[in-house]
Every structure is written in structure tokens, then in C-alpha cells.
Design goal:
198 residues; three-stranded antiparallel β-sheet
Length: 198
């Protein structure tokens, strides 16, 4: 035999020299830590699985809604609606452009009418000299009134525009007569009366 002592005694003696109590305590702490970590890991895995299930349900719901929406709206109908809306947009734009052009034309016409009105205001109610002369030459009533005025007779129109009153001035005698012209008397009567008065 190689050894003088009993191997079992040697092993028992050797084991007695080892201090394994701190190692056992450390291993116990390590086992506890591993157990706590395993529980925390299991808890996190459960939370992740629950979140994954919830997200999966949401995904299924959204996928179903998307499928229903896609099947309800055909691409050809959508394209035709876009074309119709584009057509309306161009019509509205053209109408707006036409209205803008018409507005500019009306503004120019308004400016022209304002200038014409200003010119007419400057001429007065009777018009300019050439217009008045032409009208007097063409209108027999105006010619008659001018002849009467030259004789000292002013015909006064009433509210309807009819000449039924006359003012006769005789500058030689210094007389002024007011005459109401009544249709029941003849024109001859009034002509004699006017000649006698002037």
C-alpha cells in the first residue's frame, strides 16, 4: 500500500481542513438571487405575452376594418369621384375668371359713364350751346316761345307742362298783365287780346 494511513481518514481529515460554510452561504444567496431573477423574468414574460395578445387583437380588429373599408370602396368609383371633383373645380375656376373679367369690364364702363355724367353736369340741363341751338331750330314750341318773349309775353307752364298762363309786359305803358288761358275761349279771342295788350 502506498499510503501509511487509511484513505478514508485522510479524506475526513482533509475535509475537516476545508471551511465550506461561507461557500454554502454564498451558494444559498446565489440560489435565492437566481430564484428571484427567475420570478422577475417569468413576470416580465407574462406581461409581454399579455401585451402581445392585446396587440394581436388590435391588429386583427384593424385588419378586419381595413379589409371592410377596402372592399366597400372600389378604386374605380374613387377615381370617378376625383375626376368629377376636378371637373367641378375647373368649372368654378373658369366662372371666377369670367366674373373677374366681367367685373373689370363693368368698372371701365362705370368710369366712362362717370366721365360722361360729369360732362353732362358741366353742360347743364339745356346741354351745350350747339345742342341748344339745334334743338331750338328743330322744336316749333321753342321757336314760338322765343317769338312770344321777343314781343314781351312769357308763357308759364303748369305742373303738367301745359302753357295755360301768360305774363304780358308792355314796356311802353309800363303795364304787366297776367292772363289765364282757358280752352273754352278760341285762339282767335286770345290772339286779339294779346295784340291789344302789347
Amino acid at each position: 500500500m502506498l499510503l501509511d494511513e487509511d484513505p478514508a481518514a485522510l479524506i475526513h481529515h482533509t475535509v475537516g481542513n476545508f471551511n465550506i460554510h461561507p461557500d454554502k452561504t454564498a451558494i444559498g444567496r446565489i440560489n435565492e438571487s437566481l430564484s428571484t431573477l427567475q420570478q422577475a423574468r417569468d413576470l416580465r414574460i407574462r406581461d409581454a405575452e399579455n401585451a402581445l395578445k392585446k396587440l394581436s387583437r388590435n391588429f386583427q380588429n384593424l385588419a378586419t376594418q381595413h379589409h371592410e373599408t377596402a372592399s366597400a370602396h372600389s378604386s374605380t368609383e374613387h377615381a370617378s369621384q376625383i375626376v368629377e371633383l376636378d371637373t367641378r373645380k375647373f368649372r368654378v375656376a373658369k366662372a371666377a375668371s369670367d366674373l373677374e373679367i366681367e367685373g373689370e369690364r363693368l368698372e371701365q364702363e362705370l368710369e366712362g359713364l362717370k366721365e360722361r355724367l360729369h360732362g353732362l353736369d358741366l353742360q347743364g340741363l339745356e346741354g351745350d350751346e350747339a345742342t341748344r341751338t339745334k334743338r331750338e331750330l328743330e322744336d316749333p314750341t321753342i321757336l314760338k316761345l322765343k317769338v312770344f318773349r321777343s314781343l314781351g309775353i312769357d308763357a308759364d307752364p303748369d305742373s303738367t307742362g301745359a302753357y295755360n298762363k301768360a305774363t304780358i309786359r308792355n314796356t311802353q305803358k309800363g303795364d304787366v298783365h297776367l292772363v289765364n288761358i282757358d280752352p273754352k275761349f278760341s285762339k282767335f279771342f286770345y290772339a286779339n287780346y294779346l295784340w291789344q295788350t302789347i
